[in-house]
Amino acid sequence: MSYFYNKIFNKKISSKGLDEDLKTYNKSRNSEDCKSFCQAPFKSLYFGNNGKVTPCCYNRRYVLGNISQENIDRIWNNKKTHSLRKALKKNNLSMGCYICEQQLKNINTSSVPALMYDGLPPENQMPLVMEFEADDTCSLECVMCTGEYSSAIRKKREHKWPHENIYGQHFIEQLQPYLKNLKDARFNGGEPFLSPLYHKIWADIIRVSPDCRISVQTNGNILNDTIKDFLSKGHFYISVSLDALEKNLYENIRINANFEKVIENISFFRDYCLEKGHYFGLAVCPMRINWQQMPGLVKFANENDAKIHFQTVWFPPSLALWNLEWKELTEIYKTLERAQCETNTDIEKANAQSYQSLLSQIEQWIQTAKQIDFENFETYDVTNLKKRLIDNITKWCRENITQEHEEQLIIKKYINIIEKTTADFEEEVLKKCLKEILKTPVEFIISTLASEDDNQIIERFKAFIF
């Protein structure tokens, strides 16, 4: 975790103004879980492909430690982990819990990711949940993905060397004492079914803790005898990524995928989960290129006894919905609102609720877009546009950072990033780019930029201004 991010978000985000939302959020939770806004830091560890360990896959900003420098036991019991636990018991979401805070503000209380960690036994000496995004091995080049999560993209699109293999045999050995207590092991990619690392971990889990739930987020393109053997021995809970029901559109989003094979594999995974009584789901990324598919995907999920989950695409901005102008978002909202969701079965009711949460999120984006619609940047030249962006960041820092010295360091860092990033742009291109980034909420710019090293910050910033 960068020094700057810790300092920026070390100021408590007050729950004032969120009291009613917090009450709604806690209504369906048991008294034990309600002791903290989120149970993740008390029961979970997430292992990222860069070696960073965080409390969950949603909060990647507040890093508890790095597996290349510390062992699991030390990370689980260190000062940073205890600080996060203490903060969440006070409903303080300032330590990287940006996504859950936004869902709460958007009145999507049923979609707050923190709920994924409810329902587990009381606080334990060891983590009960482990999440792995420790291997980027993947054969697809999805348009909304990056080389951080796909080895194919890293090699073919970004032309970079493969990631360093941080999770070797020493990590497998470290895991052994924790596996017997594990209730839920969650695997993301890359593509989990292609990962030799995950195959080793699954074999150990099945041997040591045969009742442990093994949750896999797959793109659905891989199903062979090895995978079927794992499925037959373990308790696998499966979610398949599916963003369109039209072959060409699907394959243009999930580059290198085969639509017919995915649909066939979905049938296999559905039957497997139904027979075992396990969760089966579909993960969908609504974007500019596929939002019209959402009603059909809900219907498809209902027909396949799958719970649908809509994943917000924040990045890259060129594909995202959240940064569209309010008139365009309003048309999207009106079109999607006309769809009628069946509510006869429990699955249909759950999917209708997820769909309504998507609509609520779009509605919130409309209100945000309307607030900035009055801004007219046509009269600004490049110097004024850049100054306006720096002023926005400076204002935010001064309102949210308590120590003046730290405030100045952070402001200087971001000014340097802006200058370095925009140095190679021609004036007219830069003018157009800066107009676009000025429409972006400053909190989102900062929360994104604050989490990476300098080179990654520059890459992401360029994507923003494009």
Can you walk through the features of this model?
The structure is a single chain. Helix 17 (404-422) crosses helix 20 (454-465). The chain has helices spanning 3-8, 19-27, 40-43, 72-76, 79-89, 98-105, 151-157, 169-179, 196-208, 225-233, 247-253, 259-276, 294-303, 326-337, 346-372, 382-400, 404-422, 427-437, 442-449, 454-465; strands at residues 44-48, 52-54, 65-66, 129-133, 184-187, 213-218, 235-241, 280-284, 307-310. The protein is 48% helix and 9% strand. Mean pLDDT is 86; it is low at 1-16. The longest helix has 27 residues, at 346-372. The protein has 466 residues and is α/β, with parallel strands linked by helices. The chain contains 20 helices and nine strands.
Task: Summarize this structure as a short list of keywords or feature phrases.
single chain, nine-stranded mixed beta sheet, disordered N terminus, 466 residues, alpha/beta
The count of strands amounts to 9
Euclidean distance between termini CA atoms: 27 Å
Q: Report the principal-axis shape.
A: globular
Order of helices and strands: HHHEEEHHHEHHEHEHEHHEHEHHHHHHH
Query: Regions with pLDDT < 50 over 5+ consecutive residues?
Result: 1-16
Estimate percent helicity: 40-55%
With strands numbered from the N-terminus, the spatial order across the biggest sheet is: 3-2-1-4-5-6-7-8-9
User: What radius of gyration results from the CA coordinates?
Assistant: 22 Å
Q: Mind describing the biggest β-sheet?
A: 9 strands, mixed
Q: Which structural class fits the helix and strand makeup?
A: alpha/beta
Helical region count? Answer: 20
Strand content: 5-15%
| Average pLDDT number | 86
